[in-house]
Each structure stands twice: as C-alpha cells, then as structure tokens.
Model the fold of this input.
Amino acid sequence: MKNVEIHPEAVERIKKFSVTDANLGFGKYVCPIMVQAVYDKGEWQRFDLLPYASIPLDPCAKVLHYGQEIFEGMKVFRHPDDSIHMFRPEMNAKRFNFSARRMAMPELPEEQFLEACDVICAYAKNAVPRRLGESLYLRPFMIATEVGMGIKPAKQFLFVIIASPSGSYFSGDSVKVYIEREEIRSAHGGIGAAKTGGNYAASLNSYAKTIALGCDQTMWLDAFEHKYIEEMSGMNFMAVIDGEIHTPEIGDTILDGITRKSIIDIARAEGIKVNERKITIDEVLAATKEDRCVEAFLCGTAAVIAPVASFMDKDKTVVHLKEPNGKVGMRLREKLIDIQSGRAEAPKGWLYPVRNLNF
Ligand SMILES: Cc1ncc(COP(=O)(O)O)c(C=O)c1O
Done:
C-alpha cells in the first residue's frame, strides 16, 4: 500500500476552514483539500493530499467523450465523544471496484481506498459537523485522463476524493414519486448496477419531466416489461405491505445500496419481515388503494430514508399513501441515524474509526 503524501499547503488550507451556516445543505460547502492519485503504466503511482483545485484535463481526455468514470458516496460522523467514524466504508470500497471492473477501469486495493478516505477525514476532522443528522460526505471518484479519440479503454486515470460538510439531502418532507413508464435507466447486461455517471445522465431527462409534473423523484421500471419496480435515480425503494417490507431484489440492473442493506439488517433484527423479490408497480398501486400498503420509502446514503407521499402515473393520476410519514420508515431512519452517530450500539464492523492526528 502507498502512503498518502501530505502537502503542507493542504494542511494550512484546512486549518483555516470553517463553516458557520446553520443550514449546511448537500454539497453546498466543500473542504479546501482533496486526495489525488494517478494511475499510469499499469499501476497506482502516488497518492497526495493537496489543496482543493481544478483538475487540468486535455480536451481529448477520454472521460470527456466516452464517459469512463465511476464514483462513490459515503458519510462520516462525529460521535458524542468527538471521535470520527466512517459508516461501512469497506462496502463502498468493494462497490467502487465492482464499478471499476464493469467500466474497464483499474481497481483500487480496498486497503488503499480506505487509507485515502481515512487521511482526508483525519485532516478534515474539524469540518465534520456536530448536529444529529449531519455528516461529512465523501465523494471518491475516478476518471479516464488518457488523451485520444479512439474508443478503447484508457490506460491513464485520476482518482480523487473530495469532502463536503453536509446536512440532510431531503428536508424531511415526504416525496412525490413519478412512475416512468417509457424511458429506461438500465437493462440486463448494461451498467445499471455500477455507480457510473452514464446512469445519472440517462436519468436527467425524466428528472426534468418529474419536476415539471410537480413530483420530486423518478421511479424506474424494468427495461423489458416496464412493470417491475427497480429503483429511483439515486435511491432504492421499499414498500410496507401488510406490515412487511417489500423491496426489489438486487440484480445487474439495480445499484446495490448500502443503506438498503443496512435497513434490511436493522429491520430483521427488530423482527420486521423483509421480502426481497420482484415487485410490480401495479401491485404496489393496488395495495395502496386498498390501504394494505400504507407507507413506502426511499433509501440512500444522502437522504437516509425519505418517505413517499404519493405515486403519479403516466396519465397523471395520483395515488396517495395513507401514512406519508409512516411509522416503519421513520423508526428505521431514527435507528440508523442513531447507529451512525454513535447514539446506539452499532452492529460489528459498521463503524470505521478515523485516526486522530494532531497537526
Ligand atoms: C442509483 C442509486 N441507487 C441507490 C442508491 C443508494 O445507495 P447507498 O445506500 O449505497 O447510498 C444510490 C446512491 O448511492 C444510487 O445512486
């Protein structure tokens, strides 16, 4: 494993950084440091902690034309005793490498990924917010920097981690979901399970339609029959039907969410039955109309859990959930936030303590 070289200008910059805004928002503030690593000649060359700065890119860099890019999103929490903890970062490291393989990019050894995350967190410790529900959001990403117009996998890459002190992604208001019955996000054999920019680019046209219709989030259905629920553009989906949680099973078209996995574990530990299976949107709409499905929620790192208020269909008919701030989702949300922030005991291995450095 390579050590991260600490540049004194980066340390000076982060020492002077503070955010006093009571409303941190999501991605509104970014720490003035970043980790950067270069991949060339078949290996990772060096890792540096640098001042945050623009990335110089040749106009022929392959990422700009062919979208060879992957990223992760993860959170870091301050506990009541002031210690700092990353939440399940090994899972992000594994998913990053899964995405890298799918996009013909080099893997980053898991311990190297964790070391790089640990270093930026250790230096950004004063930027980890203090209030419950707030966190330092890490965004590791990798881009193809090789210059050339040929459509073939690049051989040179840049890995970067930036960090953003963040509040909650959602205001806590329940979310109006628009059911996308025409466009698709992902198909079998495609890239839907990888965390790569193309999936998000593919979602934006429908996002614009979703907002124009007064909704907040797009729900994607399967590409073949357009009837099975897959996920949202940046979150997984769960419905509570007859008191049990039902969530689409993970396959090669859905991002394997870490929040989803954690919620399933917490729910099962609390005695709630969780069914991972194929679910049609029509089944959920019918169960909602019959009040068998009284709540549904979306889950992901940024929002944790966002309850669903309603589903809007293609013909603009709207079906409302009876409990738009449902008990099950809110209880699981509270439990997960308590675990992340050190207020409840975490299952073994869920919290990764960040080293404490004096600088
Ligand atoms: C497409 C998509 N689905 C689901 C999720 C939720 O995944 P996680 O809980 O790991 O953040 C995300 C966010 O990362 C996402 O971008």
Q: What stands out?
A: Residues 73, 231, 233-236, 255, 257-260, 300-301 surround pyridoxal-5'-phosphate (CB under 6 Å). The longest strand covers residues 135-144.
